[in-house]
Amino acid sequence: MKRTSWSAGLSVTADGVGVISHAGAVAPRLLADQVGLTTELSGAMARRRFIPIHDRGRVLIDTAVMLADGGESISDIGVLRHQSEALGPVASAPTVWRTLDEVTAGKRKKIQVARARTRRHVWSHLPGGVPASACAGRDLGSTIVLDVDATIVVTHSEKENAAPTYKRTFGYHPIGVWCDNTTEFLAASLRPGNAGSNTAADHIDVLGQAIGQIPAAHRRDLLIRSDGAGASHDLLDWITEQNRVRGRRVEYSVGFSITAPIRRAISIAPEAAWGPALNPSGDIRDGAEVAELTGFLAPGMLAKWPDGMRIIVRRERPHPGAQLSMFEEADGWRYQAFVTNTRTGQLQFLEARHRAHARVEDRIRHAKDTGLGRLPSREFALNQAWLVAVMIAADLVAWTRMLACTGEAAVLALCEPKALRYRFLHVAARLTRSGRRRRVKIPETWPWATAIVAVFNTIAAIPKPA
User: What is each CA distance from 148 to 92, 134, 205, in whole angstroms?
Assistant: First the structure.
């Protein structure tokens, strides 16, 4: 049998008509229109006595769709421009540059308001309501979980405000907040590479923006999680002050350094104080234990910290090759601590709830795969505008999953960005016209054809904002 017989008689020409690629990218664009985000952004970007050929709200949406579709540079907008038979006129790369240049600090605030209004509409139409954040086999009910973290974005050229980072690389050090319930990218701030990891002012600023993105009806019960970079007096005091807002409860779960007072508390804590830790599934984890050390600390050690702060420590037998401190080498345990103001709940569950903060690393990875990993300009302001488009793209993907990837389309709900593009966004289709209507026909042999059609039908049925 000849292994190359499949290619017999095969030829390739460039004269095809009625065929479009990346047909799935129409879905997030259609969703943005359906939920009112395009209209809101158009109002946010409007300028007096200036009527552009390409509406600036539409340009921002198309840029976000391009990023969700896997684009890495502004010139990749050309992929959407070649789908004009399905999408209509799409702005050129120079127009995208001009649009991003128009996203000033004032425009960014208006865009935040536009996103918050649209998010309120989206959350009000989520099937089954806002998803609950889950950990250790349980969920947190109506609590909205905000995960804040910073990451390094390496640049390979001299860009404005790029600087050496603490990881001995060169680039930027943005900080962002993600909603663990919905995976939405709520807020972010682009910072120079030498910006501090634990700068309280940056944490407070971005968290304030993120809380503003949460619909008012869901701000009553918030949990803010962070790694050790959030363990500062100013940040924890600010979170504590948020509880003064009538009808609002804000809790925190923040990583904490193993300091000398904590090491002394570990040394005097009896074995009875330690209990088994839990796996993410809720089962007991072998070789890991949890204890609360608040009562074993020397008097006055927590005097400068907010009232009600608890210190919880996890100890675990290290994996082979792990580097231990001198204190840890003495007894062979590896220690990790965090602080929280949650007064109730099983100790093991609170520790598992904190460890679920690690999911933010997946959110960061997805953001870098959707434009954050490559900032396009030498100008800092343009890169800030690009970051706005990245957040919009992340929201469109999250909303597509939550609103449309249900029922027959549930198979697409858990896809990461690359898998979503492979199965859905990059699918080719045939475009036909009849009776003044256009029909996009997905190949019936495509494994996810039924799911893709279901996504489009669900989006079309979403009620538009009043």
Answer: 35, 17, 11
